[in-house]
Amino acid sequence: MKDPITIKITILQPVHKVWDYFYNPKHIVKWNFPTTNWHCPKATSQFYEGGRFDYRLEYKDKSFGYHFAGIIDEIKVLEYVKSHLDDGRKVEVYFNKIDDNTTEIIEIFEPEIQNGREMQRVGWYAILDRFHKYVENN
After folding, report:
1. Which residues form the Activator of Hsp90 ATPase homologue 1/2-like C-terminal domain (predicted)?
2. In what order do the strands lie in the sheet with 38-45?
């Protein structure tokens, strides 16, 4: 990975629930956006090695949107998923079981070149924090 950014968060839920909510499209559309001005109207995932995922993120007013899409390279169930995005950047997500009701997620991703590192770190963390709140409240 080239000059990766790492973010992490601790979630007070069991690893099997955190895993399911993170990769199940019916949940992804409810949390995968950085602020309330955004939404994720569609998420698809072929959740196996070599499978494709495609999450549509867009402003609610439809003035801007993009696809967060790529291929799943490696899965170790309840432990990690490694993938690469359509632009070639790599993403790794680790699920560390702290105890029966606590899970730490660590995301490591290669930044893109259009936006600054701190902006990307803040944006990815905002989505991860929204995920954290969604999982703990559902």
Report:
1. 14-136
2. 5-11, 102-109, 90-99, 80-85, 65-76, 52-59, 38-45
Reduced to 3 states (helix: H, G, I; strand: E, B; else coil), residue 43 is: strand
Q: Counting every residue, how long is the chain?
A: 138
CB 53 within 8 A of CB 61: no
Per-residue model confidence as pLDDT tens for the chain (138 residues): 889 999 999 999 999 999 999 999 999 999 999 999 999 999 999 999 999 999 999 999 999 999 999 999 999 999 999 999 999 999 999 999 999 999 999 999 999 999 999 999 999 999 999 999 999 999
Angle subtended at Cα 133 by Cα 131 and Cα 138, rounded to the nearest 5 degrees: 95
Backbone dihedral angles phi then psi of residue 76, each to the nearest 5 degrees:
-120, 105
